[in-house]
Amino acid sequence: EVDSDAGAHFDRKGSSCLKTEMVDSQYYLPNDIGISALDCRVAFRLLSPKEQMYAHYLSRASWYGGLIVLIQTSPESANIYVLLQKIFRLQAPQQLEAAATAAGLSAEEYQAFLVYAAGLYANMGNYKSFGDTKFIPNLPKVKYPTYYVPCVALGTWRHCGAAAISYNLTLGLGISAYFSGNCCLEDAEFAQKFLDSKNLSAYNTRLFKTEIDGKRCYEVRLASAEKGDEVCCGKHEFEDSVFSVKRGDYAFLMEKVCQNLEKAKDYAANENQKRMLEEYIRSFTCGSVEAHKEGSRYWIKDKGPIVESYIGFIESYRDPFGSRGEFEGFVAVVNKAMSARFAQLVSSAEVLLPELPWPPAFEKDIFLKPDFTSLDVLTFAGSGIPAGINIPNYDDIRQTEGFKNVSLGNVLAVAYATQKDKLTFLEENDKDLYIKWKGPSFEVQVGLHELLGHGSGKLFVQDDKGKYNFDQTAVRNPETGELISSWYKGSETWDSKFSTIASSYEECRAECVGLYLCLNKQVLSIFGHEGEDAEEVVYVNWLNMVRAGLLGLEFYTPESKSWRQAHMQARFVILRVLLEAGEGLVGLRECTGADGRPDAVITLDRSKIYTVGKSTIQRFLCKLQVHKSTADVEGGRALYEGYSAVTADGTHNFLRLRETVLLRKEARKMFVQANTYIKGDAVELVEYEGSAAGLIQSFVERFPDDAEEVEAQLREMTCMDSSCWC
After folding, report:
1. What are the Cα distances from residue 63, in Å, to 44, 296, 381, 391?
2. Which of 2, 122, 259, 426 is the most buried (most CB within 10 A)?
């Protein structure tokens, strides 16, 4: 509600914001935020006409599916998206500027509005995809869009305005739209128990709770185009509660995805691609995760495609419970030169895996050599774009059938470029070295992280028939010397067992593998680094990791003592581990900067990386793997949460350092992506400038044939959910 007399805006949790002037804050995107166009022009033009058609329809499916993220993120995200689409479809950013100026906005204020809009599109919602912090327009209250948007958009603004501009929130239970507003952690755990009992995956679900006659009633919504009943759908009595399983969540968008995947089938290069798309269509039509797993099996078998893609409910980072997947879809073109290096790394994997610091019994019985390619992204629809991916995330497939790795080359080329004057927390003599070698070192880290990090390690499992995938009379815990006493049973998975820490814990394990194996000369040689250059790559890779651990404090919330970003929590944990090693390996000191404000400097003794550093990561990595392999949730959680703690105690006051990090933080870059259109018998690629206006225009032109229908459906879906947020 809005209290116009007090000038404060309230959201459903009662938090308020009174904003009378533009100020820097973690709840705003700065006007000078980096915005870069993803260049895929050359890669796309090298495709055959058939491959371009295939890429086009896969892109269309991805863009429609990507809108689902608006519904998953927050109750107001879809309405804000519709508002912005209405505004910019009527007036392009350049035209709207005149109206905004006439309404009293300065050039700086209008740019703040454009940056907010671009941020909403780039994150597919009003929470940062990296960190889950809400962002609001960096405008004085009296200059919010009510005063200059077209009249046709004002109704939409009234629906979402108050929620859009309340700002002291981060995603979590009670806010995330994966759950109704009245769900708590106990509900999430109870629902997982029910889903496990029915052998249902949470990946494509949302959970809504009501109470009828004093009885807890839960509605599990499956994402699907169809809304009819199927096996397991309907009502189920479960431990004094009632669960209703319904298909048809996001039905309109799921249907659009299926229609475009059906068209893409006509241009598939081989039978594996056709079967893959057929299974995806089946999955998205009826809500079957098993069908998506089957499609993923065909995807793994599709070795070395020119056009690579993946689509579905994939990553569980943003589910507060860690089990539900956010929708994403990507389409990319293989960069053959860079892919050759990754192929060499894959060929060396069987030699490198035994180097990892756990007993052979804790490694997979057979390493299934995956595809590992460098890709130039044409389309990446979802809440953000990563540097690399290791998928599918289904443990049973990854353990026995394989996976694929991809490195997103044109993302790496622009995402991690650093200007010296914006480079924080390093000594001056490290800065030039860091700028020169950050790109090459990060390329090595991404390769090792994805292939041998996420691709390594065995999970000990006893299946539904009582069969073990290990010898329970022989396998011993290397930490204790005793026979292992715990493992995964039946339908239990890594995500369902480790839940809230699963994503970050696994990212930490993969990062540690990268640090550990980058010390291997053979690895460095594969990436073209020899001699002194190789040593610089190692040094900057480790330096980048400890600096990232300090930067990670931005993503910690002291009030709830919680982390909002899996990778940054992982890097902070690694920083803590390396600081604890002592012997001068890593130094961290607070100081006063040249500007007179609080600052900090982090240092790394390169002479101790191969001794103190290596042995420290070796021991920690072994512990991480043992807890993961044995399903030891209690031990794993104690280890990981211990190093994740952010306190003012001890040698370093991390709570005070967090304030320094926030003071000097640099906003994460946003990307502008191209659109494709059918013109006659050919596909046309349309690119946009790397600016807020360019990013906005790309979305305005993304749905040329049915924009108003799409927006009406988004409003309808939001309206259906609204009773769950009262």
Report:
1. 18, 20, 5, 20
2. 122
Please list the residues that pair with 42 across neighbouring strands. none
- Of the candidates 407, 328, 308, 377, the one whose C-alpha atom is nearest the C-alpha of residue 672 is 377
Residue 9 known to bind ligand: no
Q: What is the pLDDT of residues 545-595, one digit of tens each?
A: 999 999 999 999 998 899 989 999 999 999 999 999 999 999 999 999 999
Torsion of CA 414, 306, 452, 132, to 10 degrees: 50
Decide: residue 520, CB within 10 A, 0-12 exposed, 13-18 middle, 19+ buried. Answer: middle
Closest among 579, 573, 581 to 505, alpha carbons compared: 573
Q: Which single residue is written with the structure tokens 């906003």?
A: 667
Q: Regarding beta strands 241-249 and 215-223, do their DSSP bridges make them parallel or antiparallel, or are they unpaired?
A: parallel
Roughly what angle, to the nearest 10 degrees, separates helices 49-66 and 251-265?
A: 170
**8 Å CB contact between 370 and 112:** no
Who contacts 650 (Cβ-Cβ below 8 Å, separation ≥6)? none
Active site residues: 450
Closest of 198, 51, 13, 36 to residue 676, by C-alpha? 51
User: How many other CB atoms sit within 10 Å of the CB of residue 232?
Assistant: 15
pLDDT, tens digit, for every residue of 89-104? 999 998 899 888 888 8
For the beta carbon of residue 476, count every other beta carbon within 10 angstroms. Answer: 12
Strand (E) or helix (H) holding 44: helix 41-45
CB-count exposure of residue 637 (10 Å: 0-12, 13-18, 19+): middle
d(CA 502, CA 523): 28
* SS3 at position 123: helix
Q: Phi and psi for 498 in degrees, rounded to 5?
A: -90, -10
Residue 619 CA to its chain's centroid (Å): 28
Tell me how long the chain is: 726
CA distance 92 to 711: 18
Scanning 198-331, the segments in alpha helix (DSSP H) are 251-265, 271-286, 289-301
Backbone angles phi, psi at 277, to 5 degrees: -65, -35
Q: Which two tokens stand for residue 417?
A: 């470029």
One-letter identity of residue 268: A
239 is in an annotated binding site: no
3-state secondary structure of 441: helix
Query: With bands split at pLDDT 50, 70 and 90, how would you rate the model's confidence at 9?
Result: very low
Q: How confident is the model at residue 158 (pLDDT cuts 50, 70, 90)?
A: low
Residue 19: its pLDDT value, please? 41
For the chain, the helix, strand and coil percentages under 3-state DSSP, each to the nearest 5: 50, 15, 35
**What's the whole-model pTM score?**
0.81
Query: What tens digit of pLDDT does each residue of 229-263 get?
Result: 555 677 899 998 999 999 999 999 999 999 999 99
Q: Using one digit for the tens of pLDDT, what is the confidence trace for 361-418?
A: 999 988 888 888 889 999 999 999 988 888 998 988 988 888 888 888 888 888 777 7
Q: Residue 529 gets which letter from DSSP? A: -
Q: Residues 6 or more apart from 87 whose CB is under 8 A from it?
A: 96, 145, 149, 150, 153
DSSP character at residue 591: E
The answer on whether 159 is annotated among ligand-binding residues is: no
- Contact yes or no for 242/209 (Cβ under 8 A): no
Q: How far apart are the C-alpha atoms of 292 and 16, rounded to whole Å?
A: 42
Task: Give yes or no for a contact between 655 and 648, defined as CB atoms under 8 angstroms apart.
Answer: yes
Q: Is 422 exposed, middle or buried (0-12, 13-18, 19+ CB in 10 A)?
A: exposed
- What single-letter amino acid sits at 383? S
The Cβ of residue 668 has, within 10 Å, a number of other Cβ atoms equal to 17
Residue 278: count other Cβ atoms within 10 Å of its Cβ: 18
